[in-house]
C-alpha cells in the first residue's frame, strides 16, 4: 500500500503546475490532497518570516498559521487601555515563574544530510537559511546521532574492529566527514547565536554487546565498571574529540537512544539495552567519571532519551543515587506514547521530585504510527499535534523540544529498514525544490519567538475554552503568548497584561497564533 501511494504522489508532483498558488505572504502554496497546503521553495524563492522587530510599547504583533492557509501571517495592532468586554480573558501572571527555555530544533541524521545535499547549492543554502538564519525560524538546537541509526543507509559504528578495547581504530565515517559535519558548520555560520548540539548513540559496536549485533535485543557485555562498559564510555569521549577537530563542540549528550528498545524488544534496527539500574551504574562507574576527567566536564548529560511514560520511575532510580546523580544535568523525553502518559503525572511529578534537573524533548516525528505512516504533504493535523505536544510539555516544565529528521525525501527516508516517517521539510530532488510542511510553521511559532533564556510565566483563563496556551517573558523583558485552537470555531479573546493593557485577538479555527509585545 505504501509503495502505491508513493507512485501516486510522484505522479502528482510531475503533473501540471495549476495546483500552485502564491499567497500574499510569499508562500508558493501547493496542494497534495491533504487538509492544508505546503509552501514550495527553490534556490531563488522561499517565503520567510524575516527579521522580527519588537513593536513600540502600546502596540503588539500577531503571527498566524492556519489550516485555511495562513503561514506566519504578521499583523500589528494597538494595545487597548480598557477591556472590550470579550467573554474570554487570558491574564498574564508574571509573578508565577517557572522554567527557562533552552531551545528548539531538529536532528542532522544521515538521511537529513543526504536529502539536503541532494539539492543544488543554491537550494541547499535556501533550506538551511529557513531553519537557522535570523530571517528563518532560528533553530538553535541540533541532535546528532553518533554513528548509524535507522535513518542511515547502512549499519556502522566508529569502532567496528573486534576487541579494540583501546579504540585504536576509532574513526568518523564518510557520513560525518563529508555530510553531517559540513552541514553543521554551514548551519552555525548562518545562525546569529551558537548552536546547541547534542549527541545520541543508537548502538555500541557488536563486539561489545551480548547479542554480537547492532540490531535486536542486546546490552553491553559484562558489568558496569568492567572493560566493555569503560570502553563504551571512552567511545563518547572519542566522538567529542573527533568533532572538536572540526570546530564543533557539543552542549549535551544523552546516555543512549531509547534504552528500553534494546532491552525489552527484539528491535529491528540499532539499539542498546539498559534498565534504569544498569544505566545508573554505568553513569556512576564509567561514563560520569570519563566525562568529568575529560575536557568535556561541562557537557550536559541527559538520561533516559526515551518515552515519558517511564517517568518518574526511571528518574527515581538514576537520580536517587548520589554517585550517578552528580554527573547528570537533565532528562530527555520522546513524544511517541505521550497519549498514554499524562504530562502532570510524568513530567511535572518528575520536576517536583528533582527540580534541579532540566527536562528536554529529544525526539518527535509524525508518520511513525503504522495506522498513519510516512509523509503526508500538507497535513494540518500533524502541525496541530506538534503544537499541542509542545504547549503541553512547556506547561509541564520541559525546557526545549527537538524534532527528528531536519529533511526527508518524498517517501520519508532514506531509512535502511524502511521505517519511513514525516518531516517539517520534504525534499523533491528531481525538481530541486523542497516543501515546507504545516509542521514547519508549527515549530516556527515556538523556535522563532521563544529565545534561549525566556522564562515561562503563569496565565489565568476567565472561563473554559478550547484554546491551549503558554506564556513567556523573554530576556529583554518582552512577552510572548502562544495559542493553539484545535476547534472548528473561531475563538475571540483578550489578553490582559496589567502594566500594559488589553490585547484584543482572535484565533481562527484550526490555527496557531503567537502574540509578541513590549512590557516597558
UniProtKB/TrEMBL annotation:
It is a peripheral membrane protein. Pathway: Steroid metabolism; cholesterol metabolism; Lipid metabolism; Sphingolipid metabolism. Its EC number is 3.2.1.45. It is an enzyme of class 3 (hydrolase). It catalyses: beta-D-glucosyl-(1<->1')-N-(15Z-tetracosenoyl)-sphing-4-enine + cholesterol = N-(15Z-tetracosenoyl)-sphing-4-enine + cholesteryl 3-beta-D-glucoside; a beta-D-xylosyl-(1<->1')-N-acylsphing-4-enine + cholesterol = cholesteryl 3-beta-D-xyloside + an N-acylsphing-4-enine; a beta-D-galactosyl-(1<->1')-N-acylsphing-4-enine + H2O = an N-acylsphing-4-enine + D-galactose; beta-D-glucosyl-N-dodecanoylsphing-4-enine + cholesterol = N-dodecanoylsphing-4-enine + cholesteryl 3-beta-D-glucoside. InterPro entries: GH, GH30_C, Glyco_hydro_30, Glyco_hydro_30_TIM-barrel. GO terms for cellular component: lysosomal membrane. Residues 453-515 form the Glycosyl hydrolase family 30 beta sandwich domain. GO terms for molecular function: galactosylceramidase activity; glucosylceramidase activity; glucosyltransferase activity; signaling receptor binding; steryl-beta-glucosidase activity. It is found in: Lysosome membrane. Residues 1-18 form the signal peptide. Residues 101-450 form the Glycosyl hydrolase family 30 TIM-barrel domain. Keywords: Glycosidase, Hydrolase, Lipid metabolism, Signal, Sphingolipid metabolism. SUPFAM superfamilies: (Trans)glycosidases, Glycosyl hydrolase domain. One of its GO terms (biological process) is glucosylceramide catabolic process. PANTHER family: GLUCOSYLCERAMIDASE, LYSOSOMAL ACID GLUCOSYLCERAMIDASE. Belongs to the glycosyl hydrolase 30 family. This is Glucosylceramidase. It comes from Electrophorus electricus.
Amino acid at each position: 500500500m505504501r509503495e502505491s501511494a508513493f507512485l501516486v504522489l510522484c505522479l502528482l508532483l510531475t503533473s501540471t503546475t495549476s495546483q500552485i498558488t502564491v499567497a500574499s505572504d510569499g508562500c508558493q502554496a501547493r496542494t497534495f490532497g491533504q487538509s492544508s497546503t505546503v509552501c514550495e521553495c527553490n534556490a531563488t524563492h522561499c517565503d520567510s518570516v524575516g527579521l522580527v522587530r519588537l513593536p513600540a510599547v502600546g502596540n503588539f504583533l500577531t503571527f498566524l498559521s492556519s489550516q485555511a492557509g495562513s503561514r506566519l501571517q504578521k499583523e500589528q495592532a494597538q494595545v487597548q487601555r480598557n477591556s472590550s468586554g470579550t467573554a474570554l480573558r487570558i491574564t498574564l501572571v508574571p509573578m508565577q515563574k517557572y522554567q527557562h527555555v533552552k531551545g528548539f530544533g531538529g536532528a542532522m541524521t544521515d538521511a537529513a544530510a543526504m536529502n539536503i545535499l541532494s539539492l543544488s547549492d543554491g537550494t541547499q543554502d535556501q533550506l538551511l537559511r529557513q531553519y537557522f538564519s535570523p530571517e528563518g525560524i532560528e533553530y538553535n538546537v541540533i541532535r546528532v546521532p553518533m554513528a548509524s541509526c535507522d535513518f542511515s543507509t547502512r549499519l556502522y559504528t566508529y569502532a567496528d574492529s573486534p576487541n579494540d578495547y583501546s579504540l585504536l581504530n576509532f574513526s568518523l565515517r564518510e557520513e560525518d566527514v563529508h555530510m553531517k559535519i559540513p552541514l553543521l558548520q554551514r548551519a552555525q555560520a548562518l545562525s546569529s547565536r551558537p548552536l546547541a548540539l547534542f549527541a545520541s548513540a543508537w548502538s555500541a559496536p557488536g563486539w561489545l554487546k551480548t547479542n554480537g549485533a547492532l540490531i535486536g535485543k542486546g546490552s553491553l557485555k559484562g558489568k558496569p565498571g568492567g572493560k566493555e562498559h569503560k570502553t563504551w564510555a571512552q567511545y563518547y569521549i572519542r566522538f567529542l574529540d573527533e568533532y572538536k577537530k572540526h570546530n564543533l563542540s557539543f552542549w549535551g549528550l544523552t546516555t543512549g537512544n531509547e534504552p528500553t528498545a534494546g532491552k525489552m524488544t527484539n528491535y529491528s534496527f540499532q539499539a542498546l539495552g539498559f534498565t534504569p539500574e544498569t544505566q545508573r551504574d554505568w553513569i556512576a562507574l564509567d561514563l560520569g567519571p570519563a566525562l568529568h576527567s575529560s575536557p568535556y566536564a561541562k557537557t550536559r548529560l541527559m538520561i533516559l532519551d526515551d518515552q515519558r511514560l517511564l517517568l518518574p520511575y526511571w528518574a527515581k532510580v538514576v537520580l536517587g543515587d548520589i554517585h550517578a546523580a552528580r554527573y547528570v544535568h537533565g532528562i530527555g523525553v520522546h513524544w511517541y506514547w505521550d497519549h498514554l502518559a499524562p504530562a502532570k503525572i510524568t513530567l511535572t511529578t518528575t520536576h517536583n521530585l528533582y527540580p534541579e534537573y532540566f527536562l528536554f524533548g529529544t525526539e518527535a516525528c509524525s508518520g511513525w504510527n503504522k495506522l498513519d505512516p510516512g509523509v503526508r504533504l500538507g497535513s494540518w493535523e500533524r502541525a496541530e499535534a506538534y503544537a499541542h505536544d509542545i504547549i503541553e510539555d512547556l506547561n509541564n516544565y520541559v525546557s526545549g523540544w527537538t524534532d527528528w529528521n531536519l529533511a526527508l525525501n518524498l517517501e520519508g527516508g532514506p531509512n535502511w529498514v524502511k521505517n519511513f516517517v514525516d518531516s517539517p521539510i520534504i525534499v523533491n530532488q528531481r525538481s530541486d525544490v523542497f516543501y515546507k510542511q504545516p509542521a514547519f510553521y508549527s515549530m516556527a511559532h515556538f523556535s522563532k519567538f521563544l529565545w534561549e533564556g525566556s522564562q515561562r510565566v503563569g496565565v489565568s483563563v476567565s472561563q473554559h475554552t478550547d484554546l491551549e496556551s503558554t506564556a513567556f517573558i523573554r530576556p529583554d523583558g518582552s512577552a510572548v503568548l502562544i495559542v493553539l485552537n484545535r476547534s472548528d470555531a473561531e475563538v475571540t479573546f483578550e489578553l490582559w497584561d496589567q502594566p500594559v493593557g488589553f490585547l484584543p485577538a482572535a484565533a481562527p479555527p484550526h490555527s496557531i497564533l503567537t502574540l509578541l509585545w513590549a512590557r516597558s
